[in-house]
Design brief:
The protein is mainly alpha-helical. It has nine helices and two strands. Helix 1 packs across helix 2, helix 3 (54-78) runs antiparallel to helix 4 and helix 4 packs across helix 6. The longest helix has 30 residues, at 87-116.
C-alpha cells in the first residue's frame, strides 16, 4: 500500500519543486554557453552547489528528486495514476518507470555533490558498467532504453494533446498549458536520446561510455544550432512549468477500498 498521507503529498510537491530547479538551471547554463554545461548533469549540480546556500539546496534536491522517483515508481507498481492495465496503460506505466529510475539517478548525483562537494563524474556510465558486468546485464540496459523510448513517446503525446491539464487544479495560470506543451516536447527529445544511448550500450554492445544523462543528452545536440537552442529553451520552460505543478498538480489519493486512485481537485 502506498503512503498517500499529507506528508507524502508534501514530498511529491517538493519533488516537483526540485525538478523545476534542475531543469531551469540546465536550460540557463546551456543557453548561456557556461563552462559548466560541458560537464553535462554534473555541471548542473556543480552550478547549484556554487549558489549561495547551494549545499542546502542540493539536499532539498536529493529529497525531492528521490520523492518524485518514488511517486513515478508507484505508477507501474500500484497504478497510482489510474492508467489501466491494457497495452496503452502499461505503455504509460513503463514510461513512468523510466522516469522514476532517471530521477533516482539524478538524486544520487545530487547526493554526491551535497556530501563530498564534488562528483567523480561518469556516475551513469559507472552504473551501466556495473549492470553490464552481470549476465543479461545488456538486456537490462536495453529494456531500460526501451522504457525511455516509451517515455519519450508519452512526452510527445502529452505535448500534442495537453492531456496533462487533467491533472492540474483550477486556479493555475492561463499559460500553464502552453508552457507544458513546450516543455514536454523538449523532454521527448532528450528522453529519446537517453533511450537510444541505453539501447546502444545494452543491445548493440557499444559500451557503458555511450550512456547519457539528462545534461549529456542535451549537450549531444550542441552542434545542431537551432535544434539545440529550441530544446534548451524547452527544458527551461519545463522548469517553469514544474514550478507551477509544485503548487497546482493534483496528487492522487487512495480510495478507502484499497489500491484505487482518486484525484483531489
Amino acid at each position: 500500500m502506498v503512503d498517500k498521507s499529507e506528508k507524502f503529498e508534501t514530498l511529491v510537491r517538493v519533488g516537483y519543486f526540485s525538478r523545476a530547479i534542475m531543469y531551469s538551471v540546465l536550460g540557463v547554463i546551456a543557453l548561456m554557453g557556461a563552462a559548466a554545461f560541458a560537464e553535462g548533469t554534473d555541471g548542473v549540480f556543480r552550478a547549484i552547489r556554487d549558489f549561495p546556500g547551494g549545499t542546502a539546496l542540493l539536499w532539498i534536491l536529493v529529497i525531492g528528486l528521490s520523492a518524485y522517483g518514488l511517486f513515478r515508481l508507484a505508477s507501474p507498481a500500484f497504478d497510482i495514476e489510474n492508467s489501466g492495465s491494457d497495452a496503452k496503460g502499461w505503455g504509460k506505466r513503463l514510461g513512468h518507470l523510466g522516469s522514476g529510475i532517471g530521477h533516482f539517478a539524478l538524486a544520487y548525483t545530487a547526493y554526491k555533490f551535497a556530501t563530498a562537494g564534488n562528483s567523480s563524474g561518469g556516475g551513469a556510465q559507472e552504473a551501466a558498467a556495473g549492470v553490464l558486468s552481470y549476465d543479461f546485464g545488456g538486456a537490462v540496459l536495453g529494456l531500460l532504453g526501451i522504457a525511455f523510448f516509451v517515455a519519450a513517446a508519452h512526452q510527445a503525446k502529452r505535448a500534442w494533446t495537453a492531456e496533462f491539464m487533467q491533472r492540474v487544479a483550477a486556479g493555475a495560470p492561463d499559460y500553464t498549458e502552453t508552457l507544458g506543451r513546450i516543455g514536454f516536447a523538449a523532454r521527448a527529445v532528450v528522453f529519446a536520446i537517453i533511450g537510444w544511448s541505453l539501447i546502444r550500450a545494452g543491445f548493440l554492445s557499444a559500451g557503458s561510455a555511450q550512456v547519457k544523462t539528462l545534461g549529456e543528452a542535451l549537450a549531444s545536440l550542441a552542434g545542431n544550432g537551432i535544434v539545440f537552442s529550441l530544446v534548451a529553451v524547452g527544458l527551461l520552460v519545463f522548469g517553469i512549468f514544474s514550478l507551477i505543478l509544485a503548487r497546482y498538480r493534483i496528487i492522487p489519493d487512495m480510495d478507502p477500498r484499497g489500491k484505487v486512485p482518486a484525484f483531489r481537485a
